[in-house]
Design goal:
five-stranded parallel β-sheet; alpha/beta; binds calcium ion; four-stranded antiparallel β-sheet; 2 domains; single chain
Length: about 230
């Protein structure tokens, strides 16, 4: 199980693109973003890589020699290879996009593309698939199992009320982001409840007491942030 929030494990990506120049440029961009990249240049090679090796994500050009990208993708999905797949399509070929998505692609980027866009979309896909694959959120020494409602800190179970659990869950999905008291109140209380923002402070300080004072920082005038 990969630790989603700290992202320390190297992320392996299969890049399938027969245009050597594009493959080189994109490969360098991905490596620069910290991915470990494996290249495939033909349909059959891509198929074999995907069936025999494990990847966190795949970038798949659809126009490939010997075997079309869509057929490669269908074959992977038939064999239960469920890694996220980002397809590369030519501009204006909307039917290609539809075919790709129907064959089991998760997202697409149209050529010509900017490398940072591909990197951003790939990161989003990997985050999403990691979140789906594992109901356990981990941040530092804090661990939250969203399927059982159990939480632990430094390996010790911590008792949380439903509202504390919801609040912690909300923070853990937004590590590094400032969250205002209003946003928290909207998330935690249904509209007919009393949304006094000072109750948010109470919950935050309870969470700190049950874990560590540093777990949620107060950002003066703006809200809170989990780092
Ligand atoms: Ca191509």
């Amino acid at each position: 199980m990969r630790n989603v929030n700290t992202g320390e494990a190297t992320i392996r990506v299969l890049l399938v693109e027969d245009d050597r120049e594009i493959a080189k440029r994109l490969g360098e961009g991905l490596a620069g973003a910290g991915f470990s990249v494996e290249h495939a240049y033909t349909g059959p090679d891509a198929l074999a890589f995907g069936l025999n090796d494990t990847f966190d994500a795949v970038i798949l050009d659809l126009g490939l020699p010997q075997m079309q990208g869509v057929d490669v993708l269908k074959a992977w999905r038939r064999e239960k290879r469920d890694f996220p797949v980002l397809i590369l399509t030519a501009r204006g070929t909307w039917s290609e996009k539809v075919d790709g998505l129907n064959a089991g692609a998760d997202d697409y980027v149209t050529k010509p593309f900017h490398v940072p866009e591909v990197v951003a979309r790939l990161n989003a896909l990997i985050r999403r698939s990691a979140g789906l694959a594992s109901p356990v959120l981990q941040h530092g020494e804090l661990r939250l199992d969203t399927s059982t409602g159990k939480a632990s800190f430094k390996g010790q179970p911590i008792e949380l009320t439903a509202r504390e659990f919801n609040m912690l869950n909300y923070f853990m999905h937004r590590v590094g982001r400032i969250i205002s008291q209003n946003e928290l109140a909207e998330h935690l209380y249904s509209t007919d409840e009393n949304r006094e923002s000072n109750t948010i402070e109470v919950y935050v300080s309870r969470l700190r007491r049950k874990t560590s004072p540093e777990i949620i920082k107060t950002i003066r005038g703006l809200g809170y942030r989990m780092d």
